[in-house]
Structures are given as structure tokens and as C-alpha cells.
Amino acid sequence: METHTHNWLERTELLLGSEKLELLRNAHVLVVGLGGVGAYAAEMIARAGVGRMTVADADTVNATNINRQLVALHSTVGRPKAEVLAERLRDINPGIGLTVVDKYIKDEETYILLDAARYDYVVDAIDTLSPKLALIAASLERGLPLVSSMGAGAKTDPTKLEIADISKTHHCPLAHMLRKRLHKIGIRRGFRAVFSPEPMREGAIILCEEQNKKSNVGTISYIPALFGIGCASVVIRDLIGELEG
């Protein structure tokens, strides 16, 4: 069976040129959190031709993920998200150097993961504040370029999406809480955030007591995907030297 692996990046090379495509082939990108945002970010990064990736998440696919998560199908319910995504990424690029970490990245695991390899970029798609803060702080401490997704839930307007330094985020509750925590440890700027200032819809959040989360937030199919694509665009454009600002 013909695999077509010889020319699958032909259109990307036509757009970017061979030298910039080679920069992507030689890059290693870490994506932490493979839910509604992170899986889309990872897939877009892989489809752009990044040669090495590490993806991390210990969660399994739940039926409630099907409305918005790339890895979630009725046929994948109960399977590890990292495993399902890894199959997709290897099918997109059979030559990808892929490391799969089936663990929740928090506490000591954050430092172990960041010190396990030399990364050219980190994508933070964690939706819980404390491990998110730890990943950001530890990445910046190591001088690693990073892009972070803010809250994608309870929103419906794709035209409100913005990408800016964390210091310039506004009207986003998660970004506000994160900035306050970062200020306490001396971090005020230094990484880009994908966010939306669209007001959160009333009644779209309910409290819960599930593992690693304290609330469930209503979501629509396309908003988390756009946040992930925004994160991927930052990574790709920065790696090839085309990100302004």
C-alpha cells in the first residue's frame, strides 16, 4: 500500500520554504494537557512538520469529552487520551520522534518532565491553576519558550480570541487568577497567552468534586479547538522566526 510519506509536507514547504521547514523538523515541542485545547495544539504542531514531540496527560476519554475534544469518540471512551493522540500523530507523521507521558504533570513530575529532554517550546494546556502555575514558572526558570492557554469554557464567539503577553490579558478570570499567583513569585510577563475577553455565559459553570478539578464548565465544539490552534500558531511562527513582538 502506498503511504505518500514522501510528499505529505509539500504544501507546507511551498508556503514556508525548505529552510524554515527544516527548522520545524529539528524542533522538539512539549505539550502538557491533551483535552479540548491541548490535543488540537499538538495535532496542528505535528501537521506543520515538527520532528519531535512529547505529549503528557494521564486522563482517559470520557463521553462528556465528545462534544469538543479531538481524541474523544464513542470508540475511544475509556482509553488514555495520550495513547489515542499518539496514534493520530504517528499516523500523520510516521517518522515523528514521539514521547508519550501518561502522568498528571504536577509537583515533582513537573521538574522531572522539563529536565527529561531539551525542548524548543512548551505548550501549557492545563486547566487547573496550581499545576499550570508550576509548569509556567519552571519553564521560564529554565529559559524555555512557552505559550499558555487561558479559559476556553463558557464562551461562544470565535472572533474574540486574542494572543498577547500574559501581562496584557484582560477580562479572563483564569488569566486574572494566574497573574495574581505569578506576581507573588516575581513573574509579570515573558510568555504569550491565548485568551478571550468574551464574558462567560451565566449558568455555564457548576461545582463538582472530581479528581483534579473543582468545577465543570459548559463548552461548545469549536472554541477549545481555536485556542489550541492559536497555541500552535505561536509555536510554529516563533520556531521559524516569524512571530512579531
TrEMBL record:
Example GO biological process: cyclic threonylcarbamoyladenosine biosynthetic process
Domain THIF-type NAD/FAD binding fold positions: 15-241
One of the record's GO molecular function terms: ubiquitin-like modifier activating enzyme activity
PANTHER family linked: TRNA THREONYLCARBAMOYLADENOSINE DEHYDRATASE
Official protein name in the record: tRNA threonylcarbamoyladenosine dehydratase
Organism: Alistipes shahii
Top-level taxonomy: Bacteria, Pseudomonadati, Bacteroidota, Bacteroidia, Bacteroidales
